[in-house]
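Q: what does this look like with fe (ii) ion bound?
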Amino acid sequence: MLTPEQIRKYDEEGFLVIPDFVEPSACERLQQRAKELVAEFNPNGIVSVFSTHEQTRTSDDYFLESGDKIRFFFEENAFNADGSLRQSKERSINKIGHALHDLDPVFNEFSRRAEIKELVDDLGFSDPLLVQSMYIFKQPNIGGEVTCHQDGTFLFTEPLRVLGLWFALEDATIENGCLWAIPGGHKAGLKSRFVRTSTSDRLEAGYRPPETSKTHFEVFDGASWPEEKLQPLEVEKGTLIVLHPLMPHLSRENRSPKSRHAYTLHIIDSSADYSKENWLQRSAEMPLRGF
Ligand code: FE2
């Protein structure tokens, strides 16, 4: 699947852009399925917002329990002051996560395509497991920014054996909030981890559990990101971007009238130890599966 030159580039730069990895009809099939899922979704008073600005505050149970479910998260800017939606429900969802690849037949089929397995093999994952999937809408006008981060912060294994696959289902441009990455930025090490706060941690800190966040960041390196080195990855529909778990990346707000749909899949290697402190956990009834 990958040429030696592509593998070298991934090792050297920490990401890889592969145009035309997915045919347009497959992109459209995922878009159509996401549309159906949102249409079937009844918020029923459950409103969970996804924001990278105050991630610990917004990590509610609905989010923390979504590792083995299909759940819907709203854009931070989706609401009026009185709590009503500014746009239709369809135009207000930030993302769907985090087990689409195991629970939905259409996403399962896409996520376990032979060419994805080959690519993962080529990058040295001998026994891959599909750990997380997200359908990201980056809605027109209100699509929120995702601040600079490394995926290893949220999905940590020891040793660190994680791959991020980002599929552009629509053209991604600077205007509608494409990814930005720092070439070679994966060589600087992991800056932080986003972990579940254990009950003993909370008691030790003198807090009562209900008043305390269930997650926190463990910071190893508090220096700010060299954001001047970020490069925009403007890509066409059907492009796959492979991200190293230490690659610093972000996407800016979408203030344009165009959406920027993407599907992301995270893969770990079963030879590495998946941390019990990671926010994303599976129930015993739904273990991680490979291809
Ligand atoms: Fe990411």
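Residues 149, 151, 164, 249 surround fe (ii) ion (CB under 6 Å). The chain has a mean pLDDT of 91.
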